[in-house]
Design goal:
It is built from 21 helices and seven strands. The chain is α/β, with parallel strands linked by helices and 575 residues long.
Length: 575
């Protein structure tokens, strides 16, 4: 028998909760489902902080979906379905059921948090990283609850604002309430969109540009002005040292000289040429590219064996390992040219400056190609193209397609390409039947190849025509696999067998997987080499596959690899 005290107690507790929090119980159930989905494995390991944020966002979305389902049921289904009176729950029992629903949601969430901690340890083990503890990971739940509360609070504030606008219309304009509410909703929505897409976005990116432009003026104490005339920023350069930006100054100051190359290769070497122009080096992108050409002419770069055109990432960063690989391979008889197009880091540049990246990539390559092609064919250096991450997208912008690539280059290396890359997408979409999206085969690998490790670069007996195009992409690189399409479409790479370092328990869930992979983006570089967006010395093997010098040997490759690993460690300490 259920006592009167128990009935009254359950009723009072539920009444108190509903009075202050106004929970929607269908929303709670769906929120718990989305929360649990968000705890399933993604591409990269996540600490409790990132997991708490992404799970909170997903749970808030789930709560909204549940509220809409409840609203739809009450508005369109319940009036048409007459339940027997016997099924109607007395008030106290309804309170008990609601309490049990809340408790069940909490218990399920805790159980999933414990299981998620195990999954995170599995992922970190695959990548050789430090593992998390279950007790520490439980903090995810508290943070997620806070995020949900904030999101729901903001929604309720917006709802109050809609009702206030509607009330003012009824009061002062005498608009009928059934019309005033839609007008209030549209008014608040339009103002929010205009602020979000216009004023707030512009203010945000203006503030970010200002903040990062200050950072752009900073120089690492270990970056010193080069004295060699082969470097931009030197006393002999047309591009002043203080105009190159933070990343540009590091690029021209850090790297092997002829003596260092000779020590590694045990062969005579030349001083490698590094040309760079910053945003402050010229008045506009066109002038920047022209200045870069003037620098190439000044340093006699077109007389070297190899000329590499690099499209940088957002801040103007150039991967040192990729450049040093080329310089070591060709004994310093090289020239590398790059320009800066933004102050913003790649994540922000991807949102706001993608057009700038494409414009900069096309401007620089077209001008280099114009001067390069004007020389007699026998006097031209090997013309190579390189871009990483957003730089690969900007670099692709210089070409219309594969035929254009083959006509105007001697080799192309693109590393960690974003999913929105136009040419990359064409190759992947038209890949050979049966080949997986994470490592596609295009036209029998005759010209274009994809690789995630050294073993994939070569196939016994397979023909690879020159000039060669190579994409490096890890199965766990969120830069490659994140896309808005993840919201509602399951991609091929999640239907296929997972990559060697992807958890076999990773699946696709509507909306949730989009936010999971989005949360992986900031962690893309915070993993060990060979995973995520860390390609390490694989770029050396890639360059060897694309443009191997005639005197290259496996023993020399090992010596250069050791140097590159030591150089990368030293750079992390100094920069």
């Amino acid at each position: 028998m259920v006592t009167a005290e128990l009935r009254d107690g359950a009723g009072r507790v539920v009444g108190l909760v509903e009075r202050f929090f106004h929970p929607n119980y269908v929303g709670l159930v769906v929120a718990t489902l989305f929360f649990c989905w968000s705890l399933t494995p993604s591409l990269l390991p996540r600490d409790w902080l990132f997991q708490g944020l992404v799970s909170g966002v997903n749970a808030a979305i789930g709560y909204g979906v549940g509220c809409l389902l409840d609203l739809a049921y009450g508005k369109w289904i319940a009036p048409r379905v007459q339940l027997p009176a016997a099924l109607a729950l007395p008030g106290w029992l309804a309170g008990v059921v609601k309490t049990l629903v809340v408790l069940a949601c909490v218990v399920v969430a805790i159980v999933m948090l414990v299981q998620s901690a195990r999954w995170q340890r599995e992922i970190t083990a695959l990548m050789g990283m430090d593992q998390t503890t279950t007790s520490g990971y439980l903090r995810t739940g508290a943070l997620s609850a806070a995020v949900v509360a904030v999101v729901i609070g903001l929604f309720r504030a917006a709802r109050w604002l809609v009702r206030w606008v509607a009330g003012e219309l009824v009061k002062w304009v005498r608009v009928p309430r059934r019309i005033a509410l839609p007008i209030g909703f549209v008014t608040v929505a339009v103002v929010a969109v205009l602020l979000g897409n216009g004023v707030l976005v512009r203010v945000f990116f203006d503030a970010a540009n200002s903040a990062f432009s200050v950072r752009n003026s900073n120089t690492s104490p270990n970056a010193t002005q080069p004295q060699l005339p082969e470097r931009s920023g030197s006393p002999a350069s047309l591009a002043a040292w203080d105009t190159l930006g933070s990343e540009g100054r590091w690029f021209v100051s850090y790297g092997p000289d002829a003596a260092a190359i000779e020590r590694v290769t045990e062969k005579p070497a030349r001083e490698p040429i590094r040309v760079y122009t910053g945003l402050e080096s010229a008045v506009d992108p066109e002038a920047q590219a022209e200045l870069a050409i003037d620098e190439l002419e000044r340093t006699k770069a077109f007389e070297r064996k190899v000329l590499v055109v690099v499209t940088t990432t957002g801040t103007g960063w150039v991967d040192s390992t990729s450049v040093e690989s080329i310089e070591m391979m060709f004994g310093g008889d090289t020239a590398v040219v790059a320009t800066q197009y933004s102050y913003l880091p790649s994540v922000l540049s991807f949102l706001s400056d993608r057009a700038k990246a494409t414009e900069a990539g096309k401007l620089l390559f077209d001008k280099v190609y114009e001067h390069w092609s004007a020389r007699p064919a026998e006097l031209r250096p090997k013309l190579l193209v390189y871009g990483e991450s957003l730089g690969s997208q900007g670099s692709e912008g210089a070409f219309s397609g594969l035929a254009d690539l083959r006509t105007r280059t001697d080799g192309v290396l693109w590393v960690g390409p974003p999913n929105s890359n136009r040419i990359w997408r064409e190759f992947v979409t038209r890949r050979d039947p049966g080949s997986p999206e994470i490592l596609p085969t295009y036209a029998d690998d005759l010209v274009v190849r994809f690789a995630d490790e050294r073993a994939n670069l070569w196939q016994a007996g397979a023909t690879w025509l020159d000039p060669r195009v190579l994409y490096l992409q890890h199965a766990t690189d969120p830069v490659v696999w994140w896309s808005p399409d993840l919201l509602f479409d399951e991609p091929d790479w999640l239907r296929e067998p997972p990559g060697p370092d992807v958890s076999p328990r990773m699946g696709w869930y509507p909306i949730v997987t989009f936010w999971q992979v989005a949360a992986d983006l900031p962690n893309a570089q915070r993993v060990s080499d060979g995973h995520g967006h860390r390609y390490g010395t694989l770029v050396l093997d890639a360059w060897v596959a694309i443009a191997q010098p005639p005197d290259w040997t496996a023993e020399l490759s090992d010596r250069v690899r050791r140097y590159l690993e030591e150089s990368a460690d030293r750079e992390r300490e100094l920069k």
